[in-house]
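CORE FACILITY INTAKE
Project code: CF-77B
Contact: R.S. (postdoc)
Sample description: multi-component assembly, two entities in total
Requested service: structural model of the whole complex
Turnaround: standard
Below are the sequence entries exactly as provided by the requester. Do not edit them.
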Amino acid sequence: MNTDAEATAINQEIDLHQVDSIIEPYIGRKEMIIPVLQKLQEHFGYLPRQTMEQVSYRMHIPLSRIYGVATFYAQFKMRPRGRNIIRVCKGTACHIQGSPKIAERIEENLAIQNGETTTDLRFTLEEVACIGACALAPVIMINDNPHGRLTADKIKDILASYK
Amino acid sequence: MYEKHLMICGATGCISSGSRSVEQALVKELENHGIRDRYRLVMGGCPGFCEVGPILVIYPDEVFYCHLTPKDMVELVEKHLVGGEIVERLLYKGPDVAVPVRFYDSIPFYAKQKFNVLHNSGIIDPESIDEYIMRGGYRAFTRALTIDSLTICEEVKESGLRGRGGAGFSTGQKWEFTNKAPGPKKYVVCNADEGDPGAFMDRSILEGDPHAILEGMLICGRAIGSNEGYIYCRAEYPLAIKRLKIAISQALEYGLLGENILGYGFNFKINIKEGAGAFVCGEETALLASIEGKRGIPRPRPPFPAQSGLFGKPTTINNVETLANIPLIVREGGAAEFAQIGTAGSKGTKVFALAGKIRNTGLCEVPMGITFREIIYDVGGGIKGGREFKAVQAGGPSGGCIPTELLDLPIDYDSLNKAGAIMGSGGLVVMDESTCMVDLARYFLSFTQKESCGKCTPCREGTMRMLEILNRITGGFGNPEDLDTLDSLAHSIKDSSLCGLGQTCPNPVLSTIRYFRHEYEEHIEEKYCRAGVCKALFSYKIDQERCTGCRACVKACPVDAITGEKKEPHEIDQGRCTHCGSCIEKCRQDCILITRVGREADVSN
């Protein structure tokens, strides 16, 4: 189900000129489909359907193939995401040092599950395989800021510092 | 000229512990004293000892400061840099040293290490090609330009180098296959898609010494007759990608990349491809598909990439650490020197990422053949919090666990295979008695199940069925025949999966059953998880004798399940308790016990 905020985000006008200028340098290079999608996601925050259609049209690649690639890789998102992205590390070191408890506490605090976004688009919660900061397990990243050596009771204050 | 070099660790571990704000505080303090321009400040590579970060090393004084905070910078600048006196308070201290020690050579963590691959990391500025060249960089490549391509392959073969990405195939042989494959166009691919949860050595090499990777690729290009290379790097490693891009532009500027390099008529260009998050892309054929812009799905081999790889052309794929070894081998006399280190079948050094319940977490580079005991107790400083060692997971989701009785096993490719683990990329996650081995197996399988690409049935369906059984066991609904079913499923998946992911993913389950069968049986027959991890299979109970009534747990409990007056022993309401473990983290008397579910009820009945 789409929330109001999400619906507004989805219905926003996609500027196809911008999409075209992102695609332009890659036309004729079908092997560059992943970098194109990465650039589009960087710009729009996710991959709106119209952008993928435009890639298909301009690069002469079937939409089914683009959708196939986009859904294969964890990085690509099909729905708008929150202003702050919480990445909970679910690597081995984090797992045995209590990352499930950390994830649970965040879910309770924000009333969302893994992969979901809060209705006010403030947070998106994602579980990721490994951030590579195993020495500081358990770790979460909010946007580009790592928070290491966590315990569940620190979560509330950390979340409060992101608007 | 600078008076001193100040090296702050700028790798992800230390940045997470706050090294950026330490750097800012240091700059501000230097400016306050008006002495900023007397020092060269480098936010450099990783000295490996993440546990004690943020780290600052001062040269030429050879002083290693650790556990720094921005506030410490006032004293550090005033006392050390202005006053010339070492700040003893900020030196390395630990239970393994009698007095605070000042440099690498006297810190026990470094005593058994041997720096080959990491010899530049933390020493040079990774964003300066000059510093790399000053430390002997690109010398092996210039030598490679003057010798025959098959001689290079021969030297790499002689060194005994085996691939550091997992399977351990001879690197020199791989190169020779690609060299001899027909066709004018060939590719060199660097696999920097380090996806094993619990391994971060490749990232550290990329961040700390990016030119070593470029040089390794250039030498490979020369050896196999290729003029183009790709680095496939995880998008989750933005700093590594940034440093690689800087390194490439510097090498182009110095004429070490591009057309007619150093006048020898050799051309080479390097492209960077950012991965998009798929563990299976660490598998070589899946990685190639991903570079070609497809879904990262493996294909059957043969043909091997050495015959038909990227865009159908002969291709050599090497892992980051493998390539970082190349410049050391191809320099004058390097192969023989390399072969002196290690065991009969496994030469050289290996970088390991130490993590989990170990005191000294971080990266270490040790000679092959060292034992697990030495790594865990001498380098790693033993188990955190004085607990008992239980097992160490070697090789991530494709590997297996090594129990106490195998601690004296030498670490090399063949011994690890025999023990049911693999070298893998080199992640070592140490576990103590608070880790449940059944949950660990379930965790790894849930990871591989999610990451299975879905192409072949044994892996797609088999991992799902195994995961369902493990979920049942950890949920308290295990059946006695489950262990046999797991075993037979595991062997079918290993035998019939298409790629390395499927062929190795049952390893964690098989090795935990092999060494910790009693824990599985306890879960299944007694419905009891002794580690206190599987929530349905234990209860928390407060030891009435030891509880001092400090109320720390009462305050910590998020569901108000703990009651009791101050200075009176507390009680847990089992109906409300969610087994979140917040109380156990806060209890100072260690009086919250893990007990069998409903044990008291049994007694009263």
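Facility notes:
- Chain B has 24 helices and 18 strands.
- Confidence is low (pLDDT under 50) at residues 600-605 of chain B.
Invoice: internal transfer
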